[in-house]
């Protein structure tokens, strides 16, 4: 068998977390991928992967072999990138994945990128999952997530570290008392985001540094950021959201911040991409735009009063 093809199949199986996902990524049959890996193991006389019905894992020697093979493929990709660097205009396909909660925030960047680089075919996908194995297993070049998966073999770059914002519509406060401490939230209708890590327990730190977890309740639980925004602006209740979900509503006055003296739990937004010493030009350009977007948001948050 083609040695390079077998090395590629093996590396993609590891990156994808399984033979089926690797086959989809390489547009080959699962049997072909399995045969490539088996040929490597037979030729080396060692087992590289531990196979189960649910997933595959690296053996100790398999991990060492993977790191070397991955570097070889990266070097080849970089050699090709050197030749393409002479092209003034980026071209080709670029697959971007982001968490649903970040969709509205990142959409302007995707639009601007497509306008500035029309010869790049941008595939922009969203979902609600934070994959514990590999968020680019389906061949995504870049993944933006409000958390970092454990034990990831991907390169991780922090884009922002923000605290959640508690807010509501002015109309809500016209018929309800303004909360002055986390304990007051027991008397309020709290809108809950189904995919939030905090669920129905909000975490606060007071000015003295004392932490408290406050159990809350409300008559709306939703997995939709759009529904959460609509419910909050309609005056249905309080919401605890990342800044990028509500910053435009706060800027327009449709929502107002609450408990400004209390710090909420921190949210880290990260960019994840496959290991390589040199990013492709199109991925680097998109990542630069995303960094700029997050920096601008941080400037706005720093200048926001009553935070």
From TrEMBL:
Q: Does the keyword Transcription regulation apply?
A: yes
- Protein keywords: DNA-binding, Transcription, Transcription regulation
Q: Organism's domain of life? A: Bacteria
- Give a GO molecular function annotation for the protein: sequence-specific DNA binding
InterPro entries reported in the protein's UniProt record: LysR-type_TF_proteobact-type, LysR_HTH_N, LysR_subst-bd, WH-like_DNA-bd_sf, WH_DNA-bd_sf
- Does the entry feature the keyword Transcription, yes or no? yes
A Pfam family annotated for this chain is LysR_substrate
Q: Which residues cross the membrane?
A: none
Q: Which GO terms describe its biological process?
A: DNA-templated transcription
> Domain HTH lysR-type spans what residues?
1-59
PANTHER family xrefs? HTH-TYPE TRANSCRIPTIONAL ACTIVATOR TTDR-RELATED, HTH-TYPE TRANSCRIPTIONAL REGULATOR
Recorded family membership: Belongs to the LysR transcriptional regulatory family.
UniProt-recorded name of the protein: LysR family transcriptional regulator
Q: Which organism is it from?
A: Paraburkholderia panacisoli
Q: Which taxonomic lineage does the organism of this UniProt entry have?
A: Bacteria, Pseudomonadati, Pseudomonadota, Betaproteobacteria, Burkholderiales
């Amino acid at each position: 068998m083609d040695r390079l093809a077998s090395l590629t199949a093996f590396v993609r199986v590891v990156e994808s977390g399984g033979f089926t996902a690797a086959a989809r990524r390489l547009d080959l049959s699962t049997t072909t991928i399995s045969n490539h890996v088996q040929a490597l193991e037979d030729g080396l006389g060692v087992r590289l992967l531990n196979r189960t019905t649910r997933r595959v894992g690296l053996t100790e020697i398999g991990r060492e072999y993977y790191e070397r093979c991955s570097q070889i493929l990266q070097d080849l990709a970089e050699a090709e990138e050197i030749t393409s660097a002479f092209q003034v205009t980026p071209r080709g396909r670029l697959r971007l994945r982001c968490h649903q909660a970040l969709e509205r925030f990142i959409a302007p960047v995707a639009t601007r990128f497509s306008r500035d680089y029309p010869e790049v075919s941008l595939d922009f996908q969203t979902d609600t999952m934070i994959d514990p194995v590999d968020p680019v297993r389906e061949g995504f070049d870049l993944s933006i997530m409000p958390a970092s998966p454990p034990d990831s073999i991907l390169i991780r770059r922090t884009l922002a570290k923000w605290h959640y914002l508690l807010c509501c519509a002015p109309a809500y406060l016209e018929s309800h008392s303004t909360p002055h401490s986390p304990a007051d939230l027991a008397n309020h209708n709290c809108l809950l985001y189904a995919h939030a890590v905090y669920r129905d327990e909000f975490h606060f730190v007071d000015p003295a540094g004392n932490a408290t977890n406050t159990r809350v309740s409300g008559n709306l639980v939703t997995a939709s950021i759009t529904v959460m925004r609509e419910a909050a602006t309609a005056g249905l209740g309080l919401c605890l959201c990342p800044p990028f979900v509500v910053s435009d509503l706060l800027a327009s006055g449709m929502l107002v911040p609450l408990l400004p003296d209390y710090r909420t739990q921190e949210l880290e937004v990260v960019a994840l991409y496959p290991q390589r010493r040199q990013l492709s030009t199109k991925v680097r350009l998109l990542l630069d735009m995303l960094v700029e977007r997050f920096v601008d948001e941080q400037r706005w948050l720093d200048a926001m009063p009553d935070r």
